[in-house]
Amino acid sequence: RVHGGATEMGACLSLLSALFSGDVLLNQKAIEVKERQANQIQAEAASASVTFATHGKDTVVKGATVSGQGVAVSKMVIEQDAAYWEVIVLQPGHIAVGVAKPAAAEQLPPTLGEGTTSFGSTWGVLELAKDDVIGVCFQHSDLPMITFFLNGQPCEGREVIRVKGPVCPAVGVGESEVELRLSDFRFKPPSERFLPLMAAKDMLRAS
Question: What is the pTM of this model?
Fold first, then answer.
């Protein structure tokens, strides 16, 4: 009788273990589905927003690529607390990466970081190679507000401590060509806080 009771108890424990494992697996799958949906929303929002609101008269914009001479400012205002995006070097040259305030073409600075309407960092002709990736982390709630990465590695000394006013991702070119990438990144952001750039309505959908 004792032996039979032990057998029944063992069977019950095995059944409970199986049920528990099944619940854990279902919960894990539900979490994975929710994460995929959130990532898809973010990617769709980002890919749809790779457009430029304004650019200099000597700057050539084709889709998400910028070439020629001058500055191009994205149409997407950074509203979320922390965002990440990338700039792909298609043709090396003088390249500036950062943010700028929305402005008319005639009011754009010759490059980023000059004056009070744009903030960023500049790379010279010999500092970058074709297919290099400049990652940008922007945050509202901590300092420095902008940090840069080159091919996944931190760029020390290029931080932008503080940014004033509403700003948008921006690039500057000098006989070079770059691609602004707001999704499908080549490198992972340094922290899960830094999400792809989203419009306000898409932020509400993802929350």
Answer: 0.73
